[in-house]
Specification:
heterodimer; A: ABC transporter involved in vitamin B12 uptake, BtuC; B: alpha/beta; 8 helices
Chain lengths: 346, 233
């Protein structure tokens, strides 16, 4: 009786409000899922055909190459993504990709440097050497880009740790500046051409044999380091203060993670596109966090989701000739919605 | 010999002095409560005791078998932790990282230690539960179990009852008292909650950049009953 009275008195604040909101979210999310499933059911034959066609595509070497590089990069990105998202550093991936774009366009622009174009007071030999170096960078821009992005990764980390400026604003500052530099350099040299478009939105044609070697090495390094330092990475991610107090070199692990992220971003950027590569880092971790409640489960699930979404996105991209990056993000979004729907109905 | 001796320590950030010429000692079995207003340097002092902040002058000496990395620390919770996907077991086990040395993974002894501390703090039945679904009191107990994995001798607690409801806070103090009395764990606690924190304290340190007072609880009570210092009652 007293309980009833209290309820009547407190009618204005609805105690079930959070639950109702949750129910609303569940209905909406399941609605989207139902539509998707319905669409899939009506297009079963088309989906089957798509898989058959994709199988045919796998005969091409460049497709196989892209698939290998992409799956390995997705794997690295998802593992790093778990700690980055949990440490509230997800924007670092985004910032780094923009820096990567700037660096790539500068590298390409260096191809326009000729020994005649350099200041005349420099000795002839030096001019020749500089011109050759620039031509070399333009022909193989990956190492140059990698160096620039790694340097920026260190910079971003230092800024977000030590500066009075808030971390997210600092990242926005650096990433937009890099993008602006990229756009200016491009318009002054080659103009907005297909290459620049590909850097922005990605292309599966971009992967060369050397990319395969780089990505295999990179993912081996990431996997081994992540496995070996797993307990310490957890400690630093969960509670950096405590980890430092117990003698874990948290700064070192942050640097290591930023370094590996920089490498992953550079390798994956040209396939996924500058504007979309950070989704590989963020989406799998966020989706997994909807469903799983232990760090280990989230990590494993992120890795699986990431690789699976990449493969499916690649299929979309090949069969329907969509941009690869966009296809992969779309698949990741569907997984995120599905996991959110399940989470909301629990 | 003292577990930890603070000798004339001054800490400054960008020209502002946060802790000014503080000296005191913590002996084995002590229960010390550090009180003071916001910005009085009590948390900074605690971070210096953990080696997280370098003093500008003075020394912090660890003795009686205590190593700097072997102090159990209970930091203030961060916003990121509240929705962190980790099981209680994973959190508690992460207290063992300072015992790993050059090992890469936890061994059986680490796991047993974690299990023992989970039992001690009554979070063992929650071990598979997610940290983010626990109540505030349960979260603090899990973090305390983690801190105990990192130490056998000394706990440093930074505002441990902030955000706990009165019942949970009382329970938490009960746990700390039992750790101090029955298990011989030395306790140093920074607190805002004077009445609660001081009930079990043996010694009190009043910070106000410098030291306003350091001594036993009885001395503190007589002094403040006479109203010699305002604003710390």
């Amino acid at each position: 009786m007293g309980d009833l009275l209290r309820r009547c008195l407190m009618k204005r604040t609805d105690p079930d409000a959070p639950q109702k909101r949750r129910r609303g979210a569940a209905v909406a999310l399941w609605g989207v899922m139902a539509l998707l499933v319905l669409w899939a059911l009506f297009n079963l034959r088309a989906i089957g055909d798509a898989f058959v066609q994709f199988h045919a595509f796998l005969a091409y070497r460049f497709i196989r190459r892209a698939l290998i590089v992409g799956m390995l990069v997705s794997l690295c990105a998802s593992l790093l993504g778990v700690t980055l998202v949990l440490k509230r550093y997800s924007m670092i991936g985004d910032g780094l990709s923009h820096v990567g774009f700037g660096a790539l366009t500068v590298a390409m622009a260096l191809g326009f440097v000729t020994s005649e174009g350099l200041p005349a007071f420099l000795p002839q030999g030096l001019r020749g050497a500089v011109a050759r170096l620039c031509a070399g960078i333009a022909a193989n821009p990956l190492p140059f880009t990698l160096v620039i992005v790694v340097v920026c990764a260190f910079l971003l980390l230092r800024i977000s740790e030590h500066s009075r400026m808030r971390g997210d604003s600092a990242i926005a500052l650096i990433s937009t500046s890099a993008l602006a530099v990229g756009v200016i350099v491009t318009s002054m040299t080659s103009g907005m051409n297909v290459d620049v478009y590909n850097y922005m939105f990605g292309s599966i044609l971009a992967m060369s044999t050397s990319d395969v070697y780089v990505s295999v090495t990179l993912s081996a390094v990431v996997l081994v380091l992540f496995a070996l330092f797993y307990p310490r990475i957890f400690a630093v991610t969960f509670d950096e203060m405590f980890a430092r107090a117990t003698g874990v070199r948290a700064g070192g692990y942050n640097m290591l993670i930023a370094l590996l992220t920089a490498m992953t971003v550079v390798v994956g950027m040209r396939m996924m596109g500058t504007l979309l590569i950070s989704s590989l880092i963020i989406f799998p971790a966020l989706s997994s966090m909807r469903l799983f409640s232990s760090f280990r489960a989230v990590t494993i699930s992120s890795a699986i989701i990431s690789v699976a979404c990449f493969a499916l996105g690649m299929l979309l991209s090949c069969v329907y000739s969509l941009p690869t990056g966009a296809g992969i993000v779309a698949i990741n979004l569907v997984v995120f919605i599905a996991f959110s729907a399940i989470d909301a109905t629990r | 010999m003292a577990l930890i001796a603070i000798q004339d320590v001054t800490i400054a950030f960008e020209g502002t002095v946060a802790v000014d010429r503080v000296s005191f000692e913590v002996a084995r079995g002590d229960y010390l409560v550090i009180v003071g207003e916001n910005g009085s340097g009590k948390s900074t002092l605690m971070r210096a005791m953990l080696g997280l902040v370098k003093p500008r002058s003075g020394r912090i000496v660890y003795g009686d078998g205590l190593e700097k990395n072997r102090i159990g620390y209970l930091p203030q919770q961060t916003a990121a932790q509240r929705d962190f996907p980790a099981s209680v077991e994973e959190v508690v086990l992460s207290g063992c990282v300072n015992r790993m040395g050059t090992r890469f993974f936890y061994n059986r002894a680490d796991r047993e230690k974690a299990l023992g501390n989970m039992k001690l703090l009554d979070v063992e039945r929650l071990r598979k539960k997610s940290y983010r679904t626990l109540s505030g009191g349960q979260q603090q107990r899990a973090l305390l179990a983690r801190a105990l994995c990192a130490t056998d001798a000394m706990l440093l607690l930074d505002e441990p009852v902030t955000g706990l409801d009165p019942n949970a806070a009382a329970e938490f103090y009960e746990v700390i008292r039992s750790l101090n009395r029955d298990h011989g764990v030395t306790v140093v606690m920074v607190s805002h909650d004077l009445s609660g924190a001081m009930r079990d304290a043996g010694k009190v340190l009043v910070m106000n950049r410098g030291m306003d007072f350091f001594g036993s609880l009885e001395d503190y009570r007589t002094r403040f009953a006479e109203g010699m210092v305002k604003g710390h009652g």
